[in-house]
Records
---
Amino acid sequence: MGVKEAKKNFVERREKLIDDTFSPLAEEVRKIKENSIDRIEELIEAAERNFERSGIEFYFTRSSKEAIEVALEFFDGAKTVVKSKSLVAHEIGLVEELEKHGIEIFETDLGDLIVSMLDEKARHFTMPAIHISAERVFRLFDVKDENGLKQRVKEIIRERIFAADGGITGANAVSADGCAIIIENEGNVRLVSSIPERHLIVTGAEKVVETFSDAIKVAELTWRSAGYSMPSYLNVIGGLSKSGDVEKRIITGLHGPEKAGIVVVDNGRTEASKTGLKEALYCLRCGACLFSCPAYIALDAEWGSVYPGGIGQVWNYIAKHETNPFYCLNCGVCEEVCPLSINTPEMIRELKETTLRKIQKF
Ligand code: SF4
């Protein structure tokens, strides 16, 4: 079952959420993304000033290597770090690099935990374990049903979070006026970002938009296009945990971490913003196009590492100069379903030509 069952449930749920307010929001978000990608460098500079002002360390890194160096220094001396979903952390190979340096990484997102326990790779933006059946998951955790799974997962994950020296999360949107927004349903992001003494957000440069209000609109379109009328939790991080209750003296790190940072990874994004692949930078990672893609479904979601499907091949090319565009049938359904009308088929055509030219040179 796995992928086909997930597709059926997703399509039914998402259809109910496409009401009269969806298109105006999508049009507004498209303009926000166009504006922010055109001003990517200026907005990152503003974000740096505003995050630093509120006590959050800000790092803009050009490459995976630079981002890993920042993370290693940030978690210096840590033995265990818990992690929630961050595609960019996987893009830069962060888990493997931290583990090479003796830091144990534990996935707290259920889908990511399942794929890491099975030593497999994530196959969807929002559902990493899309290809794994419920029966296989129950066997993996040695439980009989959803209830048993819930109890078992809670025990394992909570113990790790409370013992961890640090936490890593991603972000769905970052505003240049100084806040990061993280959408979630499981509740692990709240714990990972607030229980350990150090919290590091690892995200991509294309996530930076101008204002908090823009970031909220981006987040709303993301969760709606991902099939949720409302997420269970919306985490907004705009500073360190603090109290001014005693003579207005500011005491930081009261219940949240003592130290927080954000790494904004470029890894080819700025360069791509000046090419025909620019539209890929608008992607919200809602995953709607993946469920609509006949090739992705026929391949049991096994198409591309880190970033899957058609849009994923554009992303793998931008970030890692790896791509496999040839599974694409150019049917155009992904563009139709995309809330931002991202022209993935055109970018895939360009990648096919580039790849063929490279092959012919050999
Ligand atoms: S390309 Fe569009 S539909 Fe696909 S994940 Fe990105 S925003 Fe969502």
Note: The chain has 17 helices and twelve strands.
---
Amino acid sequence: MHNNDPQEKPGVPLAGEYLKRYEANLRRMPEVKAWRTGEFDAGRPSALKDYFGAHGFGFCSHCQGVGLAMNEDGMGYKAVGWDKDIQLFEKCDFCGGTGVLTEKPRS
Ligand SMILES: [Zn+2]
């Protein structure tokens, strides 16, 4: 786990467990949207990470529980290259690609 050379980050495709978690997010979207609208109207924090926090998912808010690193603007996942015609994405640093935060956040 200490071999953490940023040059040598293998990408992973949006498939398998990542795709499963991504699809779970999509299914959750209507509920999340409703929650965020309600919280926003009530003047409370209504970001996606607040939703995860409020619901105690233990999800990694950095990658929205998917396990792939997000782009800095929060739109989509960070592509790092291609494996033939399959696009590869960077694993989320914060949860190690698990989508779940098991450790305390690093400072
Ligand atoms: Zn993460």
Note: The chain has a mean pLDDT of 85.
